[in-house]
């Protein structure tokens, strides 16, 4: 369990970066959070760190514009990646976003795994599929977290999981976690998977 390995209370935002020149320069392992805007990336970080508002969450999508690096007990970092798929974003902004994410995912030696968040309620979007394919192509370890599980009855979880896996062409070697930031369902499994990637 996480508490034996890391003091998760000792967590704080370290810096925000738009490009490589701003990334922290050391060799601490990093876990990045990727997913559609509003899927619950920041909430996932807050839940894992048992904090209400360390990573800023909002009901207004498209808020996180930079890569936000969170230091966890000087042993690990979470990197909150701005969400994709927000409609009210210009073509130019979208291209800039793509470059920023790609630069981080492809060149960052510290990166140990990407937590790819999808919404358990819905079939993955084209961009969700694209992100998963991208990670597989670059052989970046990926943990798929299907969140907002509290919003559908437990009896339907399996069916929704199957739909998501099918659409993603999910690799059975990867971890798939049903999660809720509301109920904390999946908390232990999420920490176990993350720690096993370090
Ligand atoms: N019911 C429920 N609501 C959630 C859950 N996770 C996140 N939310 C809500 O969904 C909204 C968006 O959550 P965020 O964590 O800000 O999403 P994000 O992926 O960081 O969004 P961007 O930073 O815009 O990309 C907020 O209103 C959260 O409270 C969950 O597991 N269950
Ligand atoms: Mg966010």
From TrEMBL:
GO terms for cellular component: cytosol
GO molecular function: GTP binding; metal ion binding
Keywords: Cell cycle, Cell division, GTP-binding, Magnesium, Metal-binding, Nucleotide-binding, Septation
Nuclease found in the keyword field: no
InterPro entries linked to this entry: G_ENGB_dom, GTP-bd, GTP-bd_ribosome_bio_YsxC, P-loop_NTPase, Small_GTP-bd
GO BP terms in the entry: division septum assembly
Domain of life: Bacteria
Pfam families named in the record: MMR_HSR1
Cofactor: Mg(2+)
Residue ranges occupied by any EngB-type G domain in the UniProt entry: 27-198
HAMAP family named among the record's database cross-references: GTPase_EngB
Described purpose of this protein according to its UniProt entry: Necessary for normal cell division and for the maintenance of normal septation.
Annotated family: Belongs to the TRAFAC class TrmE-Era-EngA-EngB-Septin-like GTPase superfamily. EngB GTPase family.
PANTHER family: ENGB-TYPE G DOMAIN-CONTAINING PROTEIN (PTHR11649:SF13), MSS1/TRME-RELATED GTP-BINDING PROTEIN (PTHR11649)
Protein name as annotated: Probable GTP-binding protein EngB
Organism expressing this protein natively: Streptococcus cuniculipharyngis
Lineage per the UniProt record: Bacteria, Bacillati, Bacillota, Bacilli, Lactobacillales
């Amino acid at each position: 369990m996480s508490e034996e390995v890391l003091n998760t209370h000792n967590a704080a935002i370290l810096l925000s970066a738009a490009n490589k020149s701003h990334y922290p320069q050391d060799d601490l392992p990093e876990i990045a959070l990727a997913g559609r805007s509003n899927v619950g990336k920041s909430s996932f970080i807050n839940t894992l760190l048992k904090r209400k508002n360390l990573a800023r969450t909002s009901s207004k999508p498209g808020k996180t514009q930079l890569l936000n690096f969170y230091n966890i007990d000087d042993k690990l970092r979470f990197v909150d990646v701005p969400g994709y798929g927000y409609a009210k974003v210009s073509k130019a902004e979208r291209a800039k976003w793509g470059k920023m994410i790609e630069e981080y995912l492809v060149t960052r030696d510290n990166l140990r795994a990407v937590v790819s968040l999808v919404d358990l309620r819905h079939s993955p979007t084209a961009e969700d599929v694209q992100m998963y394919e991208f990670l597989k192509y670059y052989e970046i370890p990926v943990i798929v977290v299907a969140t907002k599980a509290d919003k559908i009855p437990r009896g339907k979880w399996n069916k929704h999981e199957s739909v998501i896996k099918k659409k993603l062409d999910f690799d059975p070697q990867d971890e798939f976690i049903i999660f809720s930031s509301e109920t904390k369902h999946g908390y232990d499994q999420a920490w176990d998977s993350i720690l096993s990637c370090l």
